[in-house]
From TrEMBL:
Pfam families reported for this sequence: Tti2
Name this protein carries in UniProt: Uncharacterized protein
Organism: Penicillium freii
Superkingdom of origin: Eukaryota
Family indicated by similarity: Belongs to the TTI2 family.
SUPFAM superfamilies xref list: ARM repeat
GO cellular component: cytosol; nucleus; TTT Hsp90 cochaperone complex
InterPro entries, A to Z: ARM-type_fold (IPR016024), Tti2 (IPR018870)
Length: 571
């Protein structure tokens, strides 16, 4: 065993960060020692340094690669002795713990932290340890057949380790660790589901591994059972915990928690309704803690997890959100995130948090109010909430980040075009959800669309104009009974945008061509609406509507005659 260790160490020193393979001493070690002796050797070793941990991981992996666990004459796997079985379980435990990402990745979730060369080195070492540990877990499947029932005692911790690397976007994941985790999880999820041990393992992870990390992060809005607290105690607005992150190990040491929760939530199928409802109360405090945190990366992750949490409710038809009265709690938690705007928040960070918060809020409302048993009261609550988002958040945020209500004689500007584009895209979504109720908000919506479409510098960022054209189409379709009153502003915006495209000689030809097609389509939708007036009252369309219908072609022709360049728009 000592010779195997020596060669493993030499290989690690010669090629740092690369998995050593093909150790001849492993053959001798495997023939002279049993699994119990292997574990004794690993357990007694000093693991205070990165190199020593890697040495033990490589030693154990190489040993098991050459270990023969079959009976003579190919009679199947050899049952392990009690000491060997315990050694295998201990190795699973140790490797699962070694695979977990280190606390050095906490800086990736801290907006104020500076990532030094030492931290980068520590992160690289953690990634390599994880790769080696996952490889060891994979090869430990070899002696698994010799265990009682062919099952380890610690399936939960093995799943926990694999779940950390189930998403290659996580900062600690590498191609090797992701691939190893994918192979591991494919096998283990199938085996544990088949053996009815999957959900007990998930329950153990949630109760014994994740919940303790949030024990000191209290939320007065919910009870200990994960329900709405109708008599919450007001906590100090600012306290020591705001400055001290030590009571929050999920932020400082166990930063992989969000990744594990995300993987677990992705495992629920509609037929797993009972298991999901049992675990629901375990998710709520952790997700709310992240959303309420003062760090935007954690807020963002919390909103993403909330959207994931609501998906099984929708798919299974569960009424647990209604039973726990948590709709308003989720709304109150997410809504402040919508205020993360420039200049206090950078445009990139704003796009991250808003890109998670708006879907989370809309998903909350849909889950609460758009179920198969939707009542009139639910419809009214849904419409009221959507209108609030549109007016208090989307339109006001658009005005905040884009000076779209310029002083007389000046031109609207869009210093944050990507964010303005994003807000217009969300306006389109909310407008489609509001349907005919969009009519009530035309006075606020049309100026937003007009100032964007008519901006002379809009072609510098075509996605902004594309989003404005799409939003205009949505408004026309959903507010069609009253859109005739605003045809002048809409026609002016579309015409101005078309002319600015004609004047632009330096933009992307493909993008501008796509924009022109979108403008043409928007105009055709407007024309269709104007030619088909809808009666608001029982006695038919208003006289003005009929007059507009009769003059549509004439009005369009007058615009073309005023500027021949518009002929392409009105074809």
């Amino acid at each position: 065993m000592d010779k195997l260790r020596k060669e493993a160490r030499e290989a690690l020193v010669q090629s740092p960060g690369k998995m050593p393979i093909g150790f001849f001493p492993a053959v001798a070690a495997a023939s002279k020692s049993d699994l119990h002796q292997l574990w004794q050797n690993v357990a007694a070793y000093d693991h205070s340094t990165h190199l020593n941990i890697c040495e033990s991981l490589v030693t154990a992996t190489s040993y098991i690669d050459y270990w023969d666990g079959t009976l003579p004459n190919d009679q199947g796997p050899r049952p392990l002795k009690p000491a060997e079985a315990k050694a295998v379980n201990n190795l699973f435990d140790w490797a699962s713990a070694a695979a977990l990402p280190s606390s050095d990745f906490a800086v990736d979730f801290d907006e104020t932290a500076e990532i030094s060369d030492d931290i980068i080195k520590a992160q690289n070492e953690s990634q390599f340890r994880s790769e080696l540990a996952l490889e060891l877990i994979l090869v430990l499947n070899k002696p698994l057949a010799g265990l009682p029932n062919s099952k380890p005692e610690n399936a939960a911790d093995i799943l926990l380790a694999g779940a950390c690397f189930a998403n290659k976007q996580n900062p600690w994941a590498t191609s090797d660790s992701y691939n190893a985790a994918s192979m591991l999880m494919n096998v283990w999820v199938q085996d544990t589901r088949r053996g009815n041990t999957f959900w007990p393992a998930i329950d153990f992870i949630l109760r014994e591994r994740i919940r303790p990390l949030f024990a000191k992060t209290k939320n007065p809005a919910i009870t200990s059972a994960g329900r709405k607290n109708f008599h919450p105690q007001t906590l100090p607005r600012f306290g020591a915990s705001d400055l001290d992150a030590s009571p929050k190990p999920w932020k400082t040491t166990d930063v992989y928690v969000g990744a594990v929760l995300s993987w677990i939530l992705s495992q629920y199928q509609p037929e797993d309704k009972t298991q999901f409802e049992t675990h629901f109360q375990l998710f709520v405090p952790t997700i709310l803690a992240m959303i309420d945190d003062n760090n935007l990366p954690f807020k963002t992750k919390g909103c993403i997890l909330l959207t994931q949490l609501l998906q099984p409710i929708q798919e299974s038809g569960s009424d647990i959100l209604r039973r726990t009265n948590l709709t308003s709690v989720f709304e109150d938690a997410v809504t402040p995130c919508l205020l993360s705007l420039p200049s206090i928040t950078s445009e990139d960070r704003s796009l991250d948090i808003l890109g998670a918060a708006y879907p989370a809020l809309l998903s909350t409302l849909k889950t609460a109010y758009k179920g198969p048993t939707q009542s009139e009261r639910d419809k009214e609550a849904y419409t009221t909430s959507l209108a609030k988002i549109l007016r208090s958040n989307l339109i006001s945020s658009f005005h905040h980040v884009s000076s779209s209500t310029p002083a007389s004689g000046s031109t609207a500007s869009f210093p944050h075009p990507r964010l303005s584009t994003f807000l217009l895209e969300k306006i389109t979504i909310i407008t489609n959800e509001l349907g005919i109720h969009t009519t009530k908000y035309l006075q606020e919506l049309i100026p937003v669309l007009y100032t964007t479409l008519s901006n002379p510098f809009g072609t510098a960022h075509p996605p902004l104009l594309l989003a404005a054209a799409a939003a205009t189409q949505a408004v026309i379709k959903n507010a069609h009974p009253r859109i005739w009153r605003w045809r002048g502003e809409i026609l002016s915006g579309l015409s101005s945008c078309w002319l600015h495209i004609a004047e632009d000689s330096g933009g992307s030809v493909a993008e501008l061509a796509k924009l022109k097609r979108e403008l043409q389509q928007t105009l055709q939708v407007l024309k269709l609406v104007l030619l088909n007036p809808v009666a608001i009252a029982a006695d038919g369309p208003e006289p003005e509507q009929v007059q507009v219908k009769e003059n549509v072609e004439k009005e369009f022709q007058e615009l073309v005659e005023a500027d021949a360049e518009l002929k392409g728009l009105f074809v």
